[in-house]
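Entry 14. Two folds queued back to back today. First construct below, sequence then C-alpha cells.
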Amino acid sequence: MSNRAVVRVALLGLLVFALAPGIAAAAGQGQDLTEMLASNAASQATAVSGPVIMVSPASLDYGVVNNGSTGSLTLNIANTGDATLHISSMAYSDGAYTSPSVTTVANGSSVNVSVSFSPVDGNSHPGTLTIMSDASNGTQTVNLAGQGNSAPTLNPIGDKTVTAFTTLAFTVTGSDADDTVDDVLSFSMGTGLPPSATFNSGTGEFSWSPTSAEAGNYTTTFTVSDGRLSDSEIVHIAVTVTNHPPTANAGGTYFGATNRPLQFHSTGTSDPDAGQNLTYAWDFGDGATSNDPNPVHTYLAPGSFVAGLRVCDDGSPQLCDDDFAAVTIQTEIGAQLLLENFSSTIDVRKTGARSTKLGIEEVLLPYTDLNPASIRISHTGPAGFVTECAADTRFFVYGDMDADGVTDIDVRFTNKCLSNLFNNIPNNSVATIVVTGTFQESGGTVPLHAERAVTILVKHRTTPILAMANPNPFNPETSISYTVKNDGPVTMRIYGVDGRLVRTLKSGEETVAGTHEVRWNGMSDQNRHVPSGIYFVKTSQVVGGAVESASFKATLLK
C-alpha cells in the first residue's frame, strides 16, 4: 500500500468517527465519502429554509414637524424567504412615532408601512424602530429622526389709550421657549390704523403720535411668527383729545452785527386753546438762552447761528412746539445796491449837473442811524482820477426802488465825480462798485459795506488835472478834491465872478501824482466871510516847465 492510500484510510477513519452514526454506517458499507458529504449538505440546507426579512430604508428623517401636525414616511418590509414571515412586534423607542400593526408577510412579497411622526413639543426626537419576527436573519432596527416645532408665544399687549398730540410707543415681544429649533421671530401689524402709525417688524417697535383729526377707536392685530407657526392678539386703541399744542413762531430770519443787541420776537406764536398760559424757551445757538417771549441778545462773534424757540402750554397733557430761525451776524452791515428801473448800468457819459441815484437796502439797522456824510462809492477796477465819490447829502430819502416791499434809502452821486472815478474803466464793461458808510450806534460805529457788479458807460478824459468840490453848493464850507497825473508844484486859487482873487488855498506846493483834498471855509485871504454867490476854483501845476490847469464853479449859499 502506498503512503497516499494509508493517509486516505486514516482520514476516512477519522471522518467516519466524527460523522453521525448513519453516515458512519454508510461509509462502513463502502459508500463513497464525497457522495455522502454532498447528500448531507443538501439535507441540512432544506432544514434551515424559512422566512427572511428585508427592511428599507434603513432610516427615516422627518425634518421639522409642527406641533399638532403629523409627518408620514413609508417603510417597506419584504420577505425573501420560502415561508410566511410572522412579525411579533414593532417597538418604537419614542412615543412620537406610530404605525399600523403588521403581523404577517407572505413569502416572496412585501408590505409598505406608513410610519407617522406626531410631536407634541418643540424638541428633537431621535429614536429607533425595532421589528421582532421569526425571520431566520433575526431582529431588524430602523433609525428615526424628527424635530418638533412649538408655536411662539406673543406676550400680552393689552388695549391702549393715547391722547392726541402725544406719542403712544410700545414694543411687541414674544418667546419660543419650548422649542429647540433656532427660530428667528418676526412681528407684524395688521390693518386698521392710519399711515401715521409705524411698526418695525424686526424689532416689534410701535409708535404713533395721532393728531386731533385722528381721534376715535381703532382695532388691529399684532402677530409673532417663527416662520412656521404664529400667535396673535387683537388690540384696541382709543385716541382722545384733551388739549391742542401751541404753534411756536421764532420770527423768521435775523441779521445783526457783533456786539450789537439783536431783538428777537415770538409774536406769531399762538395756541388754539383759550386761557392757556404759554412758556417760552429760547436757545440762541451760541450757548446763551432766555425765557423771555421777545428777548434781546448780543452775539460776540460773527457767524451763522440757528436760534431755537420752544413754546409749551399748561394744558393736560402739557404740549409743546418748536420753531427755528436762521441768524446771520456780521462785523459789518451788508446791503443790496439798487439802480433805477431795475437797471444794471451806470451811465456817466454826460456830466454837468446830472447825478446817478443808487438805492441801499438793508434790514439790520435803522436808516436813521446811517450818517449820510459817510457814504462813499468806489470800485475794484483800475483807479481813475479820483478813488471815491461822496454822496450828495441833500438827497437822502426813503424809497422802494425794486418794489419788493422792503424800504431802501436812496442817495445820489454826481456824474462829474463818477466820470472821474470810472475814467480808466473800459467803456461798456463790467465793474464791481463798492458803497461804504457808517451807522452811528450807542455802542460805537458799525460799518456799511455793499458791492454789486454793474456795466459802466463812461467817456474817457485825458485832462491832466481834475478838481471838484463836495458839497457843491455848500454852506459854510466845502471839501475840494483834486487829482494830478504828475508830480510837481500845485497852486489853487479862488476867484469871484468879477475875476478878483478871493482866496489862495495852495501856492506852489510840491505835490505827488494822485488825489488830494483841501477845505475851503468860505473865508477870504483877509479872513472875512465871503458873500453868497458863484466862485471859480482854478488849480494849476507846473510840469516840465509847462503850466497845466483846470477850473470849476463852486456855489456858496447862505
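Second construct, same run, same settings:
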Amino acid sequence: MNQNIGTEEAIKRWDSFADTYSANHTEQGDLHKEVFLNPTLLSLMETVSNKKVLDAGCGEGYLSRMLARSEATVTAVDYSSRMIEIAKGRTPNDLLIDYRQGNCEDLNCLEDKSFDLIVSNMVIQDLANYEKAFQEMYRLLGDGGCFIFSILHPCFVTPESGWEKTKSGKKLHWNVDKYFYEGVYEQGLGDKEKMLFFHRTLTSYINTLIKTGFILESIIEPK
C-alpha cells in the first residue's frame, strides 16, 4: 500500500463512514466500548467534576456527553466534520460541550496547559503522525494533568490479522502477522467500508510517550 497515504485520506474515509458508524452507537457507545472500554477509562479518570476535559477524537460524542453529565467542562474535537455535526445533533441543549473540528496532530486552536484531563478513545491508530499528537496532548495538559488513551491492541490487530476458518466457516484460530510493521494499512469496517489504520509496536508507543515527557503510570488490557 502507498506509504504516502496519510491522515487526510483517513479523514475523507471517516467522513464517508460517519453515519454508519454512529448508527451503531448509543449513549454508552458501541458494545465493545460499553463492555470493555468505558469501565476501564472511567476507573482511570476517577472524578471529573469541575475539571476541564478534552475529548480528543470525540467521534459522535457519546463519551463527551457522559463526561458533561458528570459535571466536567468538556471540549470535544474530531477531524471529521461529519462526526462533529452528528455529535452536535445528539447533544441536548443543557449539556454545554464545546465541539470543534480539529486534527489531534495539530490543535493550535487550543491554548497551552488548558486542560486537567485529556482522553483519546480509540483514536491514535487513526493518525499518521502519532508523535505530533502526543506532543499536542502534552502541550495542552496543565501541571499535574492526566492523559488517558485507548487503542487497538497492536499485538493482535495487525495488517494481516484475522480469523483462520474452515471451508464451512468454523473459526480455528486468530492469525497474527507483521507485528513489527509500522505504517498504514486498510481494514474493513462494516460490510463495504475500508478504513485506514496506522500500526505501531508497543515499544514505539511507550518510548514515544516517555520521550515526549509523559510519566507512564498504568497500562490496562481489559478482558
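Quick look at the second one. DSSP finds six helices and nine strands in the chain. Helices lie at 7-23, 31-45, 62-69, 81-90, 130-140, 202-212.
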